[in-house]
Amino acid sequence: MKFEDFYKPNPVFPNRYISPEKLFSYLHTHYSDSITEVGRSFLNQPIYNLCLGTGSLKVIAWSQMHGNESNATHAMLDLLSIFENEKGFSDNLLKQIQLDFIFMLNPDGSQRWTRLNAQEIDLNRDFHLNQSAELKILKTIIEKGNYHYALNLHEQRTIFTTDGIHPATLSFLSPSENVDRKITENRKKCMAVISAVNTELQKLIPNHIGRYSDAFYPTSTGDNFIKSGLPTILFEGGHYQNDYLRKETRKYYTIALYHALESMAKLKGESSGWEKYFDIPENKESHYDIVYRNVKLNTDYDCILDIAVQFREIYEMGNEEITFAHYVIAVGDVKEKKGWKEIDCSGKKFISETKYPKLDEIVSFTFE
């Protein structure tokens, strides 16, 4: 039996939104011997590292650097649950590696379901200014840790596909160390791991695995960690058909995390098979969430156009789950892109208080 055959989501965390308090309580209840408080957020919430394994290969990973990207936290919780129930997968792996997993690096942003921290700083663009409380903690741990690999775990928008048709449910990146995107030995080490993960995922969700752009970002975390000598792999959890709460993405994120750790244990810093990394298609920005086609506006002259809509995730304090607001993102001829849902409005009446749909505002029109 393969790892993916045993996948089950951790039932304690069924929702995409994870409250910090619920996570902290769970970790203390189930993993008190394995967790260490490594620092405090700007608003004085604890940040925990969970240490698993006794192996000589040291790996560090972190989730929710962006507070509204919970899939990696889910993946680790699901992985832990599987390890508890299926010791055959954990025992051998954890004899070879030591995994330090920093849960919810940005608990303040996670609580409010925002990308930024409470200082309104993007942790992933703060490497040099070093103003955020949370990134200082991560950098200090890495500077002292003598790690062999790092996993920088994120999520990406629904706009990306692998081929203009299939959503990029997971995308990976071996970050560049310079603007020339030179293929260094550390990048090859990352590419080898990603290639191994891609081989496994193609068996499960063919055509859904993408390669994130390797443009060099001078202020980003991953680019600077790999530049400093630490092989750093970017995960980006994305869209799956009709899965806006990302339950399917969560599943494949967990499977990818396991296979990444497994391949690291096998490769032990070698780069065998790295060339296959370039067989993975680069992400294409090809989709909106909804496209209304052939909309005839209520104007004094004939005006037929397309309206593109993107969903924005909303969290209201006290709720257990996020909701979605529909925003107008483009108006006009948007035939160069597709919609995950397309609605032909030919012959339908446009009902709206305004003649034109307003960009970057909530959808306020209907059809009859």
What do these coordinates show?
This protein is α/β, with parallel strands linked by helices and 368 residues long. The protein is built from eight helices and 16 strands. The chain has helices at residues 20-31, 71-85, 87-96, 107-112, 133-145, 185-202, 221-227, 247-267; strands spanning 35-40, 46-52, 57-62, 97-103, 149-155, 160-161, 170-173, 209-211, 232-237, 284-285, 287-296, 304-314, 323-332, 338-344, 350-351, 366-367. Strands 1-2-4-3-5-9-7-8 form an eight-stranded mixed beta sheet, with helices on both faces. The chain is globular and about 75 Å long.
Q: What is the beta-strand fraction?
A: 25-35%
Topology as a string of helices (H) and strands (E)? HEEEHHEHHEEEHEHEHEEEEEEE
Categorize the overall geometry: globular
Contiguous runs where pLDDT drops below 50 for at least 5 residues: none
Query: What is the average per-residue confidence, as pLDDT, rounded to a whole number?
Result: 97
CA radius of gyration is 22 Å
Distance between the termini: 53 Å
The total strand number stands at 16
Give the spatial strand order of the biggest sheet.
1-2-4-3-5-9-7-8
Sheet having the most strands: 8 strands, mixed
> Based on helices, strands and strand pairing, what is the structural class?
alpha/beta
Could you estimate the helical fraction of the residues in percent?
25-40%
Number of helices: 8
